[in-house]
Amino acid sequence: MDWGTIGDPYRAYYGRVSADQIHKWYSEYGTRLFDSNIRNFKGDTDVNIDMQATLAEEPGKFWYFNNGITILCNSIEKRAIGAGSRGVGEFLCKGVSVVNGAQTVGSLSGAIASGFEKANSAEVIARFISLSECPSGFSKEVTTATNTQNKIERRDFASLDENQERLKSELHLDLGKTYAYKSGDPVPRKEDGCTLEEAVVGLSCHYSEVRYSTEVKQAIGRMWKDKSRPPYTNLFNDNTSAIMMWNVVRVMREVDLVLGLESSKVGAVNRMDHVAVHGNRFILHHVFKNLEDVQLGDRSFELSSYAERIRATTYYILESVSVLISGMGSVYLNNLFKNHKKLGAMSDDIPVNVDYAGGYTPRRLREPTLFD
């Protein structure tokens, strides 16, 4: 590459790198190149398709159109090749991670892999930063700073939390499940894993205070707005267990299944179908309160052993909430279930230790009730 270097305050190299070279990196290492990035390659988005079109049709312009890539390395060693010239250089980089430019790398490689021969001649500006003499935390500062210049959702920054990667690793090692917490991660099938969004909703409703269930209902983005303070740190911290998180999500799915069967979005606002839609997170919170005797963080937890209890409890709480609301007169459910003060007062009248011996009969199979 045509290169330059700076040494103060920290050693870094910069220059032009060929698309062909980047394609070789991606072909060999794949998404491991993005392990410290807040996002993986997101595939055929509109922006990425436009990049590939430029590479296919006007590769000479790519260097001018693209912002380039930033690469962090644990160490960088300049090889002897081209020692007397800045026109070309060879470097040995260890512990490499592309922290900004994942979409560029993936698009460059994709264009070449798709047979766009002109793309091989494209070049991109690249910065290689050696972390060997940098202070602790500098890598995260670089990752955050380089990515805040782009359009990124706040949820993406949650991927910088070491607990997210820990939970992903634990879930895979302990249960063989996938935790998709980065934007661009493939969404696993329900039986194979869960997403960050599911974990946030489940853990918010599992939290001891009802206000988190109303906040996540109102705006899920509030839960990860600042990963250095609550509510995020109350949901994700060193004590958050991957097994518990997974079981919380599984219970949530059972509750959502029942509420889905009960909701039709037809009828008066005080009927159970509307309560099932608007009050789903409030109901989930109280289902968890009724499961406080169940060790969701225990490896031995078997959902099948509790499924009937969860379903019956969900229906009983749904019915109880509907009865309470029917006595309120005219009420706008969408607003009610986002008001943690009103729901906090209502919570005192929600049953605990529900008798679930009668089981649960889906709406379509039972005799009509007062609310059907």
Describe, in plain words, how this protein is organized in 3D.
The chain is an alpha/beta fold. It has two domains: 3-153, no CATH class; 161-348, no CATH class. 43% of the residues lie in helices and 11% in strands. It has helices spanning 19-29, 46-57, 62-65, 102-113, 138-147, 162-175, 196-206, 211-218, 232-235, 242-262, 272-278, 280-289, 303-326, 333-336, 340-347, and strands at residues 3-6, 12-18, 69-73, 75-78, 91-94, 97-100, 123-130, 178-180, 193-195. The protein has a five-stranded mixed β-sheet. Strands 4-5 form a two-stranded antiparallel ribbon. Helix 7 (196-206) crosses helix 12 (280-289) and helix 8 packs antiparallel against helix 12. The longest helix has 24 residues, at 303-326. The radius of gyration is 26 Å and the shape is elongated. The termini are far apart.
Which features does this protein show?
disordered C terminus; 15 helices; 5-stranded mixed beta sheet; 372 residues; alpha/beta; two-stranded antiparallel sheet
